[in-house]
Amino acid sequence: MSCHEACTKAIAAHANWKARFRQFMAGEVELDASVVERNDACEFGKWLATSSAELPKEHAKAIVDAHTEFHRVAAEVVRAKGAGRTQEAEASLEPSGRFGKATTALTRSVIAARDAAR
Questions:
Q1: Could you read off the pLDDT of 97-111 as tens digits, one per residue?
Q2: Suppose 70 and one of 17, 30, 40, 106 were both cysteines; which one would form an S-S bond, judging by CB atoms 3.0 to 4.6 Å apart?
Q3: Domains of the chain and any CATH numbers
Q4: pTM surpassing 0.85?
Q5: DSSP secondary structure string, 73-109?
Q6: From residue 86, how far is each of 54, 83, 89, 109 by CA, in Å?
């Protein structure tokens, strides 16, 4: 998979997490924080582990860091809800919340790399 294709897919896949969390908060799906936290379990994480050299060098560290932070914060949402801190988890999902900000940071860094890779 090319860098451009991997980045485009990553943007869509990680944006879908907000909808997945809405289902999780409604009790429609179960999530395991230890799985969510793994930055090497999603398709983009697997691509990063094997093909990150294809990223423009000036963007590689920012993407890896933002991707790791995204998964760390996503796991925090799962743990907060599991501990009965539903309001904290919901607040994190807002654009100004921790997960919202982590999503924005990841998306921006991936878009920058994708555009630079053209």
A1: 999 999 999 999 999
A2: 106
A3: 3-117 (1.20.120.30)
A4: yes
A5: HHHHHHHHHHTT-HHHHHHHHSTTSHHHHHHHHHHHH
A6: 40, 8, 5, 29
